[in-house]
Amino acid sequence: MSQGKGTPEKIGFPRHILFVATIILLPVLFGTMFGWVHGTIPLLVFYFLRLYGKNVGGKYILFGWILAGIAGIALEAVEQLIFSLTLVPAGFILSDSVERKESIFLSGMKTTAAI
User: Fold this and answer.
1) 53 near 96, Cβ under 8 Å?
2) pLDDT single digits (tens) 66-98
3) Which of 55, 54, 46, 2 is nearest to 20 (CA)?
4) Which ranges of the chain would DSSP assign to H, the alpha helix?
5) Spatial CA neighbour of 93 closest among 109, 75, 70
């Protein structure tokens, strides 16, 4: 993300958190229309970890999950949130596999085992 004059990275922080929370909450709230979004959760985690690194990308994911968790508890949709949470380690494993330059087969097997 580019940092122009007077536009610190902190401005993008809430936007990224809301994006992560929205992607998590779409299949929770509108499961019949957006149930397929569950499959993109590992890709979302992978994207943020590769683009922003483990520290910053991990913060976006963590705070997005906290926000989605609060909304899910308020909307009484905890079961669907727990299911979405089980898909997050797959994104971490994929990102780690790319960092270690592992083969596609090995990273796919690790991800499948994590899910």
Assistant:
1) no
2) 999 898 888 888 888 888 888 888 999 999 999
3) 46
4) 12-29, 31-34, 41-74, 78-85, 88-100, 104-114
5) 109
